[in-house]
């Protein structure tokens, strides 16, 4: 199913994000996890694309399994980092051969250990160039999602410019947006006002990541620049030394965030599951979506 049609029919659309196992681990190691996610009946599952294209075949293989074997709609992330046009075309062809209809089209992060990576050497420097390429090839059969940044992209010098580039990206042919994680819903509501004011009308589904460990939050905010509200700092101070207490507090925090978002009529909830079905189940139960 083309996911944009789902957003027209259902609110909120509940989706999970998972990542493929590392290359030194057999791909089968994720199948048991997928079985458990299947029981939670998400509307779709998205599969990330390893930085620098390291696990590209795994992304397609797992997205295909989710759709064709488990009967759950899937979305494959696709980044431009280090890829020629021909490689991107081969990946798109492979996706179609696997019956995949939904892509999250991204520029991507620099490959590991190459923080100064020069994106100008890519066939597509920005995500909107990748999106234009897919659309130009008359690939209107693909539903294309793109990334949005509630607090601005980490590399962006001015938030205003980031929003204008987002609008340009959407106008190039984006069907819906998935946001970077955030911990303060007020920032998301402000972001919705700003995007509406510049004429972005496609569905915007918020990315929510439960915090399971105190050190996880430092790494994540370093990578994506999300700000940490005081109540999250207090929570980490209180529970950070005990893994199980911290996990429970993180689940409670994410559940409260999601309840408030749903009460405010959001288009969807995109849960960054960290491949943890048990915690995902607890969140869905807390918010009343599972018995
Ligand atoms: C929901 C979500 C899922 C993700 N999944 C993955 C994944 O699976 N694999 C992975 O490697 N990464 C993933 N990322 C991270 C993402 O690849 C990085 O944040 C990356 O740095 C930017 O990708 P983008 O597609 O948003 O880039 P772009 O939209 O190209 O933007 C990148 C930067 O360039 C600026 N910019 C855009 N257009 C122009 C222009 N025309 N001129 C000048 N500046 C411009 C933007 O303001 C921004 O600062 C994900 C991010 C999100 C939010």
From TrEMBL:
The UniProt record lists the keyword Zinc: no
Enzyme Commission numbers on file: 1.5.1.54
Matching Pfam families: MTHFR
Catalyses which reaction(s): (6S)-5-methyl-5,6,7,8-tetrahydrofolate + NAD(+) = (6R)-5,10-methylene-5,6,7,8-tetrahydrofolate + NADH + H(+)
Biological process per Gene Ontology, one example term: methionine biosynthetic process
Pathway listed: Amino-acid biosynthesis; L-methionine biosynthesis via de novo pathway; One-carbon metabolism; tetrahydrofolate interconversion
Family, per entry: Belongs to the methylenetetrahydrofolate reductase family.
Protein name (database record): Methylenetetrahydrofolate reductase
Provenance organism: Acetivibrio thermocellus (strain ATCC 27405 / DSM 1237 / JCM 9322 / NBRC 103400 / NCIMB 10682 / NRRL B-4536 / VPI 7372)
């Amino acid at each position: 199913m083309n996911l944009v049609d789902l957003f027209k029919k259902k609110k909120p659309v509940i989706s999970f994000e998972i990542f493929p196992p590392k290359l030194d681990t057999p791909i089968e190691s994720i199948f048991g996890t997928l079985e458990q996610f299947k029981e939670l009946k998400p509307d779709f599952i998205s599969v990330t694309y390893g930085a620098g294209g390291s696990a590209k075949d795994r992304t397609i293989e797992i997205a295909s399994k989710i759709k064709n074997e488990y009967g759950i709609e899937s979305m494959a992330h696709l980044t431009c980092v280090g890829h020629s046009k021909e490689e991107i075309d081969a990946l798109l062809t492979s996706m179609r051969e696997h019956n995949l209809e939904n892509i999250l089209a991204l520029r991507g992060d620099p490959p590991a250990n190459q923080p100064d990576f020069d994106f100008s050497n890519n066939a597509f420097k920005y995500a909107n160039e990748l999106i234009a390429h897919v659309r130009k090839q008359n690939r209107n059969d693909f539903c294309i999602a793109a990334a949005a940044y509630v607090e601005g992209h980490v590399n962006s010098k001015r938030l205003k410019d980031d929003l204008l580039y987002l609008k340009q990206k959407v106008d190039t042919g984006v069907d819906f947006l998935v946001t970077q994680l955030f911990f303060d819903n007020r920032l998301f509501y402000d972001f919705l006002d700003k995007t509406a004011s510049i004429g972005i009308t496609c569905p915007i589904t918020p990315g929510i990541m439960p915090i399971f460990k105190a050190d996880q939050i430092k790494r994540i905010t370093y990578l994506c620049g999300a700000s940490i509200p005081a109540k999250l700092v207090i929570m980490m101070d209180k529970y950070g030394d005990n893994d199980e207490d911290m996990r429970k507090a993180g689940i409670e925090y994410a559940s409260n965030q999601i309840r408030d978002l749903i009460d405010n009529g959001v288009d969807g909830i995109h849960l960054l599951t960290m491949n943890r079905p048990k915690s995902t189940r607890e969140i869905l139960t807390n918010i009343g979506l599972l018995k």
